Amino acid sequence: MDPHSLKKLNAEREARRAAVLVTNLDDGRDRVICEGDEVAGALGQAVAAGLRSGRSGLVEADGTQFFLNVHLPPPRLVVIGAVHISQALTPMAKIAGFDVEIIDPRTAFATPERFPDVPLLAEWPQDVLEKHPFDPYTAVAALTHDPKIDDPALVSALQTGCFYVGALGSRKTHAKRLDRLTAAGLSEDMLARIHAPIGVDIGAASPAEIAVAVLAEIIAAFRRRGLADKREGKAA
Q1: Which pTM value belongs to this model?
Q2: Band (146; pLDDT cuts 50, 70, 90)
Q3: Domain range annotation of the chain
Q4: For the residues 24-50, what does the mean pLDDT come to?
Q5: What is the 3-state secondary structure (H, E, C) of 36-64?
């Protein structure tokens, strides 16, 4: 690998940004394509597909063979609220390959006994985020029903561009939430990114069923990221 490519790739990985090492198999030359870089034609389509799937492999574009070595940051799920849904959601998300952590300042709920083997931060979200900010490879699920806890996390998640932002609550509850977040200065486009009521509509009733619905929606958002923007761009 070219030393410049190695340096650039390591910098992207350190910053939790996605990148693809593209090697031309005809001449052996390589280059790093970062997520968001414009790449035309069949190669660009192959790179975009690799960034969504996370899979490396051989592709052919314009009569040339390339090997795409895809590097994605480990997807992270931050759950706001140490509630019953979280107890079911966190182990399932870990099995699905997500790094998981829970934030809840309510120490009566945020206990190691209720959440073994999960990073548990019994602090206010805004305090945690000063030290460990969200990023585009983070999903945020706000589950407390308490605006003092959920709202700061939602504001930060939307401003940061997290790939998924979901919030528990009825449509009536969400309407009030939108009023608060609008007053906090968030735009309509930002607010439209909130999945609420949270989760795929499977008629879920129990905390475990709701957790299944939430995880399914998170995985779909992760695998489809970037596609909506492209469709909107074509429509425009």
Answers
A1: 0.83
A2: very high
A3: 3-71, 76-224
A4: 91
A5: CCCCCHHHHHHHHHHHHHCCCEEEEECCE
- Give the per-residue pLDDT at 36: 85
In degrees and rounded to multiples of 5, residue 31 shows phi and psi of -155, 160
Question: Which superfamily does 76-224 belong to?
Answer: NAD(P)-binding Rossmann-like Domain (3.40.50.720)
Query: CA 46: distance to chain centroid?
Result: 21
Among 210, 155, 163, 165, residue whose Cα is nearest residue 187: 155
| Mean pLDDT within 80-93 | 97
Dist. CA 157–CA 73, nearest whole Å: 17
Which tokens is 43 given? Answer: 């190669």
Rounded Cα gap, residues 66 and 69, in angstroms: 10
Q: What is the mean pLDDT of residues 72-86?
A: 96
**Which pLDDT value is given to residue 232?**
42
CB atoms within 10 A of CB 68: 21
**Nearest CA to 163 among 220, 121, 91?**
220
Nearest to 77, CA basis, from 92, 62, 63: 92
